[in-house]
Amino acid sequence: MSMVCNTLACFAIADAFDHSEINEVPQYQKEFPMTTTLYQRLGGADGIARLVDDIIATHLANPLVKTRFEKITDMAHIKKLSCEFLTTGSGGPQTYTGQGMLAAHKGMNISEQEFLVVVDDIFVALNKNGIDEDSKKDVLAILYSLKDQIIRV
């Protein structure tokens, strides 16, 4: 008898459930068709250039990491490589010409805290530029996938 009651209770709950939420298309798919790359969602070349400018400015204003960025003597080169990196990593047409992440960060002894602060700064720039939530999640996944090539290497 209790099995029948449990089954009937499940059916009653299922009938009361709003099924439209299950089949609803996520907001980012409404805004961007499935063929839209992260590169396009970040605004293409112009959007990525704005992001890089905002990311670097945020790093330079952040007391936890600014000394690392103040030491850079050729900021234009770093911005160029950062644009290439973001373009290539997000499915854009440009090729990244810089070092791999491990080689670029080897010997810098970047801490977990510094890595997280840099990620936070990137999100400040993404928010400033009105990047949608799903694209921000994609960026976070990319950043997180690189952490072992950046932290304490």
UniProtKB/TrEMBL annotation:
GO molecular function: heme binding; metal ion binding; oxygen binding
Required co-factors: heme
Binding site for heme: H105
Alphabetized InterPro entries for the sequence: Globin-like_sf, Globin/Proto, Globin_bac-like_CS, Hemoglobin_trunc
CDD domains: TrHb1_N
Gene Ontology terms describing biological process: oxygen transport
Pfam families linked to this entry: Bac_globin (PF01152)
Keywords: Heme, Iron, Metal-binding, Transport
Cited SUPFAM superfamilies: Globin-like (SSF46458)
Protein known as: Globin
Organism of derivation: Albidiferax ferrireducens (strain ATCC BAA-621 / DSM 15236 / T118) (Rhodoferax ferrireducens)
